[in-house]
Amino acid sequence: MNLVGVAIAVVVLLACTAVVLRVARVPLTASATIAVLRGAAQLAVVSTLIGFALTHDWAAALVLAVMLGTAVFTASRRLREFSGALGAVAVAIASGAAVTLVVVFASGAFDFSPRYLLAFSGIVIGGAMTTASTAGRQLWLGMVHRSDEIEGWLALGATPRQAVADIARAAITEALRPAIDQTKTTGLVTLPGAFVGALLAGASPLDAGIFQVTVLAGLLAAGSIASTLTVWALGAPKTLPAR
User: Fold this and answer.
1) Residue 75 pLDDT more than 80?
2) Whole-number Å distance between alpha carbons of 151 and 6
3) Exposure pattern of 35-47 as b/e (b: 16+ CB <10 Å)?
4) In 3D, which of 196, 188, 195, 222 has the Cα closest to residue 210?
5) In this structure, which of 1, 26, 87, 149 has its CB flanked by the most CB atoms within 10 Å?
6) How confident is the model at residue 27, as a pLDDT?
7) Are 197 and 211 a contacting pair, CB within 8 Å?
């Protein structure tokens, strides 16, 4: 890999991003640049830590704890409108990731080693975080836009959970749709990151494909659990959001 070439490519791509956003008058030029620079700095630190964690079990456990904590914090910040969002997403993300990891490693699909554990856990925890926060956001927006409907159900004697049930199902559906679409189009529209990463690491195309299929199934399982638990925990509001 040519580091000079990488630097040139990143600078040119950032310039393209800035030009397009300026032409479109979208005030995200600085945010996009900062995001890339921050990502590069974080990856530099994480790469060093993971290199150490691959040979030390306790360090691998620490990296997983940091991943989970960051995912919970990030998702809960997007759901500030809900009381108890932090606890809800913590249980949801941890449960989704734990069930998926137990199934994969207990089945013997992958060796239970720091290398596979960190690689697979990072993907699964990230996916669970995204679906949990998306489901929560969709639930909140649904309650805002359909508050009259909720009030109608409550007036008829429904419990808060029953009154929000249809909105909750719609929130889970929207949260899972990107993962389902990605799974259906894998290999036809895009080559997913796990597949490409496995190839670059020296795996055969067949082994890379097997790894990717496992990742996709894990993302759907973790996402389903995380989004459902998030919506269940937050889907029985004591008060409705202001319109």
Assistant:
1) yes
2) 56
3) eeeeeeeeeeeee
4) 195
5) 149
6) 85
7) no
Q: DSSP letter at 202?
A: T
For the cut 80, the answer to whether the pLDDT of residue 190 exceeds it is: no
Q: Which ranges constitute the DSSP H helices of the chain?
A: 3-23, 29-53, 57-78, 85-106, 114-145, 147-155, 160-185, 193-200, 205-234
CA distances from 98 to 29, 46, 112, 161, 231 (A): 38, 22, 14, 26, 18
Which residues fall within 8 angstroms of residue 85, CB to CB, at 6 or more apart? Answer: 76, 79, 136, 234
Residues with Cβ within 8 Å of 139's Cβ and at least 6 positions away in sequence, in order, are 164, 167, 168, 171, 230, 231, 234, 235
Compute the distance between CA of residue 16 and CA of residue 18 in angstroms, rounded to an integer: 5
- pLDDT in the model for residue 172: 94
Tokens of 83: 């009381």
The answer on pLDDT for 200 being more than 70 is no
Q: Within 13 Å, how many C-alpha atoms sit on residue 148's CB side?
A: 1
- Tokens representing 211? 């790894």
Please tell me the predicted confidence (pLDDT) of residue 60: 82
Residue showing tokens 């190839």: 199
Strand partners, 186: 190
Q: Are 144 and 237 in contact (CB under 8 A)?
A: no
Rounded mean pLDDT of 80-87? 89
Q: What is the DSSP letter of 186?
A: B
Residue 24 burial (C-beta neighbours within 10 Å; 0-12, 13-18, 19+)? exposed
Q: Which two tokens stand for residue 158?
A: 């429904």
Nearest to 96 by CA among 233, 193, 196: 233
- Is residue 81 helix, strand or coil? coil
